[in-house]
Amino acid sequence: MKFQALLFSIILFISVPSFSQGVTLSKEAEIYIMTLGPYQGELYSAFGHSAIHLKDPIKGVDWVYNYGVFDFDQENFYWNFARGKMLYKLGMSRYKGFFEAYKEDNRYIIEQKLNLTLAEKQQLIDYLAENYKPENRDYYYNYVYDNCATKIRDVITDNFPGRIQFDTTYVAEDKTIRDLMHDYLHYQPWGEWIIDIGLGMQIDKVASAEEYMFLPDYVARGFENATFQRDSVTVPLIAETIEAYKPESEEMSNGVFTPFNFFVIFFFVVGFFTNRDFKRMKRTKWVDPLVFTLPGIIGWWLVFLWAGTEHLSKENMNVLWAIPVFIPFAYMLGVEKLQKFLGAFFLIISTWFLLLLMLWTAFPQPLNQAMIPLVLTMVLRGYYIYFDLKKQQEKRAKADALPKN
């Protein structure tokens, strides 16, 4: 969301009157499930958004309940974010401003009117009012299992347990949670790259119909033909679907600066210096820290995510190429006492990387294809490090063997 729209939305959240926590509905009241389309301006908005819209013209009510709000001023915000203990909350805003903010970003807006009696609507709104109290509104966000979309589903099912049968015809055979994420990242190649590296095998299980609903579009699809049990009668859960805003067509592109293209260029740049080093018989020492720093940083990041956070980052097979000890090893190549060990290390690692490339598509966690040229770069430079350090050792051995005067 653009900064202006975000600022406007924040103002709207704090401008809802305090009495909005509860209201007695009239017979004209209607409740809608709102689905707001993806926006490619930011990674976090690429998957879309869900909310609940309450409209009661008799009571002058036109509000949106939204579980996608977070506060930068919360205690330890950045540390909690890093650890995966991110507090989100239920927010409320006036419908007009909420609608206009998403329309400004040219995101489609679909509203599904719930087929509920007045008593059922009142029950649902009373539940939201209770949930909106300061002591109740916060929750720990999870990318897949507890987010702005799953909360909408859960609000409905928790209020009417066992009475809703969702339409699950959207389920595709053998599609994983990662596959579902990829469907929304065609124009976010760097976002896809980060997700593929940071999230582990926990998102590589085949998604159940319920797990599809971590995405707002599948909440809408699940509700669209869902049925609702009322006494002995089964009725459609959705009375009407309204296309509240149809976005204008836009030209979309992921550009040329993709991770794959970047690392291909990086491979050729490093290849140029390595070829020159062979010809000059002298290693360009700054190249090696340049090559191995990023994989080393990623390696330590993965260790932190795996062992120290609540993110879906455990059992992450990217540690097969992002080796944490590249930092400090890549910076210690000039230490003579370690050169024999480091030469053997980079020889073994480079050989392992060749095997890894042959097995790239065989692992249960798919590894991002953009990393192939980076791994090839490390293979090239790793073998050269072994060659250069071995040559230095041989020179020193010859020097030591010369008679001393």
Question: What would you note in describing this structure?
Answer:
With 405 residues, the chain is of the alpha+beta class. The protein folds into 2 domains: 3-171 and 208-245, no CATH class; 259-396, no CATH class. Helices cover 45% and strands 15% of the residues. It contains 14 helices and 10 strands. The protein has a 7-stranded antiparallel beta sheet, with helices on both faces. The chain has a 3-stranded antiparallel beta sheet with strand order 7-8-9, with no helix packed on it. Strand 2 and strand 3 (61-69) form a beta hairpin. Helix 1 packs antiparallel against helix 3 (95-104) and helix 13 (339-358) runs antiparallel to helix 14. The protein is elongated and about 110 Å long. The relative contact order is 0.11.
Describe the structure concisely.
The chain has 405 residues and is an alpha+beta fold.
Estimate nothing, just give the exact number of structural domains.
Answer: 2
Strand order of the largest sheet: 6-4-3-2-1-5-10
The description of the largest β-sheet is: 7 strands, antiparallel
Instruction: Please trace the helix and strand order, writing H or E for each element.
Output: HEEEHEHEHEHEHHHHEEEHHHHH
* Total beta strand runs: 10
Arithmetic mean of pLDDT:
90
Strand content: 5-15%
Strand-pairing-aware structural class: alpha+beta
Please compute the radius of gyration using only Cα atoms: 28 Å
Fraction of residues in H or I helices: 40-55%
Could you give the distance between the termini?
77 Å
Uncertain residue segments: 1-15
Overall shape: it is elongated
Figure out the total of helices.
Answer: 14
